[in-house]
């Protein structure tokens, strides 16, 4: 039976593909389909379900939506596993969809097996015949190769041969009624219901099913069977700590909105308020980490990198020490020496971003003790390497494009600066200001009508507005598929001005008064070349500037809070452009919510 004993190093989070497994007294197929549907907000291109019964294991899989896979409802059995795939190795096809089976063994896998080509050659020489182009298929072949052992032992021997990242769930017709699983650099979670057990990539898929959960540590192995659960770290039995499943399933409901992205933009004020509430009490710890710091290094990927650039501007000004922001995937391989007096701040919404994780892991091994993590996911993998974890309060974000989580990251940086200065400032007004900013939606939609179908769109800003220009551009391109780019306004004349022609839309972000005239210079440069200029500012005096097609006026606020308000109309702009162009903003093509592979 399952016993509990506290361990402090548990982690969980979000992965690119989705895994959901079931052992219990109900229809496994029905439970698995429901679980996978709760995981599809990350996007996927194929899916499959495997269910075991007295006659063996049956598999149904296909390309497209889970609901469209023929025959899933006919699967009978109370033990099974399913998977939603986002293609990495091999094209989108039925053969490349999970689960994979061979000789009575069945496997689903998240991650990347880096030495799969070598293993595939070895197994092919032994007579194994592969049916897919994927790296994952070598796992089921290896399990079969070790078939003389019990399933759990065979899994241990299999992963000893693997290089890379993985969350693996496996069944065997020789060990009916049970599932084994393990993980390395890819999250996996065990959920406990009433006389039933769930295996999932993410906690929200457990809502309404499990009442407790525990995320696996790297190197953990789990044997789930009808009689209970056994947890092992390596070969040593362990007794993990259990956490309550948050039953607030409203995050996974659209609540009357057409898309999750629109719903989540509307949740920005509450998310920021939750963030500021969660961070209270961290002031002393932050001052300790920043004491005697000689440098600050900020890192992240995608939207999180744009938050890092924002943090760079704030912290360099406040601390008066060298401060830089670097993309995690580049910094990791740059060979740059990070001295132990350097404060490193990593930003990752999911807490599972592969490049960010590996970078922090390396720094931790080198003995760094000034590592700060800003994440939206409690107990995610990244928190194991943090000296301070700053949790944002955005809550689960279903839309692939980051909205409320990004604004919450900006709020976390404003908190850090004010914590170090000892001033509370205008923090308490921020949620109300953001609520007022939501009222700009209809005006933003008017600008979106001007963007649909355009060849290219440019975003300009300086200082704190520059990372917002980068993020505004990223949001637009990822959900509408329009080409767009964000620039520091002063860089426009160093090449990009050649792309400006009559009718080219240019979004100018202007919230920083000390550089307003410089930003206006860039505005005039594009305007006199025929660009359609749309200005977003909190200063009414700039609304009538010559060449401005339309001005969105943010609520009056200080220069250090205005960029947070600016994030909202930029998100609205991307959303409405996508909708007007017939795109689904919740599931942009080729993209996943979190990238847990390199």
Give the topology, please.
Blueprint: E1 18-23, H1 28-37, E2 46-53, E3 56-63, E4 79-85, E5 100-102, E6 105-113, H2 116-125, H3 137-145, H4 151-159, E7 164-172, E8 178-184, E9 189-192, E10 197-200, E11 212-215, E12 220-225, E13 228-233, E14 236-238, E15 243-244, H5 260-266, H6 268-279, H7 283-290, E16 295-300, H8 303-319, E17 323-327, H9 328-331, E18 342-348, H10 354-365, E19 371-375, E20 388-391, H11 404-421, H12 430-437, H13 441-451, E21 457-461, H14 465-480, E22 484-488, E23 505-510, H15 516-527, E24 532-537, E25 548-553, H16 562-580
Parallel strand pairs: 16-17, 16-18, 18-19, 19-20, 21-22, 21-23, 23-24, 24-25
Antiparallel strand pairs: 1-4, 1-10, 2-3, 2-4, 5-6, 6-7, 7-8, 8-12, 9-10, 9-11, 11-15, 12-13, 13-14
Percent of residues in beta strands: 15-25%
Structural class category: alpha/beta
Provide mean pLDDT, rounded. Answer: 90
Helix % is 25-40%
Largest sheet: 8 strands, antiparallel
Main sheet: strand order: 3-2-4-1-10-9-11-15
N→C terminal distance? 38 Å
Count of helical regions: 16
Shape: globular
Radius of gyration over all CA atoms, rounded: 25 Å
Uncertain stretches = 1-15
Task: Compute the number of strand runs.
Answer: 25
Description:
This protein is an alpha/beta fold and 598 residues long. Helix content is 30%, strand content 24%. Strands 3-2-4-1-10-9-11-15 form an eight-stranded antiparallel β-sheet, covered by helices on one side. Strands 5-6-7-8-12-13-14 form a seven-stranded antiparallel β-sheet. It has a five-stranded parallel β-sheet with strand order 17-16-18-19-20, with helices on both faces. Helix 6 (268-279) packs parallel to helix 11 (404-421) and helix 6 runs antiparallel to helix 12. The longest helix is centred in the C-terminal third of the chain and has 19 residues, at 562-580. The radius of gyration is 25 Å and the shape is globular. The relative contact order is 0.11. Residues 1-15 have low confidence and may be disordered.
